[in-house]
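Record 1 of the preview.
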Amino acid sequence: MAETTRPTYGNWRLPARPGIGPLGLLGTALLLGGLVATLLVALVSWIAALALAAGMTAVIVPLAVRTSDGRSGLTILAAKAGWTARKLTGGTATVTGPLSREPGGHFRLPGLLKDIEMLEGRDAYGRRFGVLHDQQVGTYSIVLDCDPDGGALVDTDQVDLWVACWGGFLAGLAHEPGLAGASVIVETAPDPGTRLAAEVLPRLATKAPTVAKDLMKEIVTAYPAASSETATFVTLTYRQPHGSRLATRADRAADMVMNLATRIPQLAASLVAAGGGSVHPVSAERLAEVARAAYDPAAAPLILRARAEQGETGQEWADAGPVTAQETADAYVHDGYLSRSWVACEAPRGTVRSGVLRALLEPSLRIARKRVAILYRPLDAASAARVVEADRRSAHFMAASTTGLVNARASTAVRAAEQAAAEEAAGAGLAEFGLAVTATAASAEELRAADTEIANLAASARLRLRVAKGQQATAFAVTLPAGVLPWLHTLVPQQLRSVL
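->
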């Protein structure tokens, strides 16, 4: 009998950081420039030279100190400074509604979602879809709702085919005109059984035996105690093409909505081939319902009941926010519920199988509501070639300059860099990715239990997660299907962050 071998995955690498030791390119330039400047000033005054050296040390040391996940001390100080500034200015608290200062008394979404405007269009099949227009960064996002088949009772060959098609889908995103990023959000929440009751109870035969009717009613009543609902969203975020000749903002938005409408069928077909199941665009009303249920989980059963009985809820994006929201250093309090968000600081080590994230994505008995967001930033062909070649040169340089026991790790890095360069040259795509997790609980005790459960799930997924200290509101928004890409909302440009 022929023996089959399951494929493994891995070889993800952080982009090479040029510089001396832990210093990036900026820190190395400051170090060398500071040494030259100090020597020149020392020819005039030793006191001035010492003062200059002390100032340069105060700047360079935060750049040289690195955490285990590669963050510099300057990055940590900047995050703490931003958190302190928001606390002093009252930016950590939000109050909406008729008794607030919101124009029109709306329940607007807080934080990064505040400047998002909801548009709506129809695709080639006449299906309505919502377009999230972020006016702050000028992006337009569409959301596709997937119903994955799952891996239970599926042949391994079919699973491997789905993974290969998913890799092809990600590689194709690099050729999408104007694509800024993509995300996959998997949300698990308690199922109140509203849809089951709406399907079963009206269909009970009036002449059926009383025992049979009582049994069906008991099943409908007991079903929510051990059931959960899983929703999967794929969000694609685009930017307006440069050089648009349309004068008004409304015309540009309408043109972008029409442009996205033509792309939805092809994107949905690619996701179906990758195991996405039934894929369809998400309407503006549905997006508002998802945001409302995330900030106010108590409204989720009401939304499902209204949709089951009437087919629609009338929920609008402008009124999908919480009444009150308070951000703390390690939690986010919204409408009486508590949420905590984690971000991945290291990808799974070594080689993994296709189901490495299964435990993290599946419903958990100890976490009532959970969202896992995987963010992708596809690189175009020119940028991908430049990145892999720079990584390849850096790996060869480190291998040539090290000896002894360290040389084994350097040799492994060389092989990985060579493999990445060869695969990229053969047509494979290159993308930067990240992961964020949000757990919502009704009390502090449940949140502590969720904290322990997330640690166990991260260990099974071979991930290293850390709490998003001082950035809970931002991480909460990132895990929603709203097209929020964190690298577009930073004050430091991407080009400068790469050299820190």
